[in-house]
Structures are given as structure tokens and as C-alpha cells.
User: Which sequence fits this backbone?
């Protein structure tokens, strides 16, 4: 069996889609298959925690990757032996490419299959594949969670783990002032807009939005449901969240407004050039 690019799939759905999309673009440029390493999620499930790889595999048609893989004892022993002989760390026998903080130029320099590890937030890398990927994801998403297309825009507010001290200290806090400026920037382009609020804590999030906007709360009950609502919208306002980023990519017909700065110390994502970026403060 020939070598493939292998994507490590970890964390929540937004990160998973970036991991997949980046590795898929590299594999397609090299003309080799793509495999998905789901070991991280399998370990979570064995520990009695929630593994979420099924969210990704529910959205990505099987034609976009060759197979799923799991890093077993034999793979570990072989990679240890390779390191002893060559001094190089590998996974599944492939050189490891740390995707974050990678940029387009680094990805373009990859000349042979790699094991792509960590989340790449330079959306330019997967941009050539998005015209192929996004319709396929939308089709699977709407088959899984019905969200009729309406003339409305989404506004996404990420709370949940962003409220915990260990996460909050790394991310810019987006409050009512930022959301007000972002929603006004959207309406300056489109005119008065009907908004649908998507959030992991929707009614707390509603209190964070400024007054003066026509906002209803998404009735979705899970991650795929909220993503379907955002994908069915005509553009919208994203949070500093990779899940939110995919809501913007999957939406059609309207502008997408996003925060320019995501993290307090780390580099912010390189977002699509046609998005409207609003700085905090």
C-alpha cells in the first residue's frame, strides 16, 4: 500500500475540520491519498470520556480520504526503532509536520507525504480545495441536521470552556461592544438584518449582545445543529473560535465579519481575504 499524508484528528469539530482540510489540500497537491489518525479520540473513549471523531466522519464523504487509522503498539515500536537509527521522530513512519504555526509557504514546501500534527490556522493552505470541500460538507450536514435556508445572518458567541480560567487567559474576550460593532459592520453592507444567535450557552450569550438588533436564538440542540444553522445563513458574525470559522466558510450569499485578533499572545488565524475583520477595543 502506497504512502499517504496522515492527518492527526484531535479536539472539537472546528479544529478537526481544519486538521482535515489542511492535510487534504497537501495530499491533493502531492497526488497521494489521505488517511485520518483517530487515535486521540479512541483514547478518550477508552477512558470513558467523549470522543468526537464521529462528528468529522459524519460530515466528510468517504471519497475524500482513504481510511481511518489508529496508532498501535507495533507502530510505536517501529517509530522508536527509526528514531534510534536516524535520530528523526516519525509517526507511522512519516516525518512529522507541525501544522501550527505553519503558513502557506511552509506547506507549499512539503514535497513528500507527512504526518500532519496540530491545528493549522492559515486558511490559505486549504483554500484551493474549498470549492470542492464546502458543497460536500454542506450536503452531509443538511442531511444530518435540517436547517432550511432563510434570509438571515448568524451571530456566534463562544462561551463554555472560554469561561474557564485556563482557556480565558489565552483568548481575547469579545463583549457587547465588539459584537455591536461587528453586527453594525455587517448591516452597513446588507441593510437591516434578521439574526440567529448560535452559542453553546445561548441564553447567557443573548445577554452579551447589544440591543437594537432583530435576534432570535437557534433552537439547535447539538454541535452539528448549530453548524447547520450557520451554514444555512447568509453570512454572519463569527467568534474567535475555529468552530465559528467553519460557520463562516459554510455560509453563503452574505459577508462574514470576524475578530481580527483571537489570542492574547499567540498569532491569530489568517482568514479568507474577503472577510471583514474587526479589532477588539
Assistant:
Amino acid at each position: 500500500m502506497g504512502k499517504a499524508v496522515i492527518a492527526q484528528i484531535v479536539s472539537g469539530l472546528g479544529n478537526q475540520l481544519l486538521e482535515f482540510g489542511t492535510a487534504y489540500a497537501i495530499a491533493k497537491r502531492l497526488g497521494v491519498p489521505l488517511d485520518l489518525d483517530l487515535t486521540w479520540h479512541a483514547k478518550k473513549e477508552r477512558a470513558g470520556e467523549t470522543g468526537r471523531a464521529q462528528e468529522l466522519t459524519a460530515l466528510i464523504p468517504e471519497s475524500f480520504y482513504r481510511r481511518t487509522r489508529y496508532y498501535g503498539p507495533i507502530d510505536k515500536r517501529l517509530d522508536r526503532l527509526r528514531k534510534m537509527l536516524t535520530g528523526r521522530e516519525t509517526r507511522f513512519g512519516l516525518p512529522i509536520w507541525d501544522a501550527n504555526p505553519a503558513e502557506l509557504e511552509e506547506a507549499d514546501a512539503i514535497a513528500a507525504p507527512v504526518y500532519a500534527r496540530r491545528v493549522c490556522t492559515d486558511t490559505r493552505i486549504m483554500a484551493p480545495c474549498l470549492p470542492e470541500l464546502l458543497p460536500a460538507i454542506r450536503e452531509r450536514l443538511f442531511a444530518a441536521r435540517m436547517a432550511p435556508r432563510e434570509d438571515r445572518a448568524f451571530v456566534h458567541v463562544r462561551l463554555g470552556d472560554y469561561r474557564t480560567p485556563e482557556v480565558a487567559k489565552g483568548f481575547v474576550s469579545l463583549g457587547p461592544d465588539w459584537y455591536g460593532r461587528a453586527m453594525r459592520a455587517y448591516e452597513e453592507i446588507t441593510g437591516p438584518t434578521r439574526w440567529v444567535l448560535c452559542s453553546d450557552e445561548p441564553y447567557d450569550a443573548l445577554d452579551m449582545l447589544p440591543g437594537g438588533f432583530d435576534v432570535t436564538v437557534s433552537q439547535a440542540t447539538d454541535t452539528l445543529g448549530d453548524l447547520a444553522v450557520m451554514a444555512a445563513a447568509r453570512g454572519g458574525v463569527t467568534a474567535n473560535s475555529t468552530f465559528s470559522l467553519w460557520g463562516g466558510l459554510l455560509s453563503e450569499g452574505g459577508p462574514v465579519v470576524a475578530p481580527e485578533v483571537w489570542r492574547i499572545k499567540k498569532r491569530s488565524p489568517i482568514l479568507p481575504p474577503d472577510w471583514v475583520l474587526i479589532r477588539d477595543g
The CA atoms of residues 148 and 232 lie 6 Å apart. The longest strand covers residues 194-199.
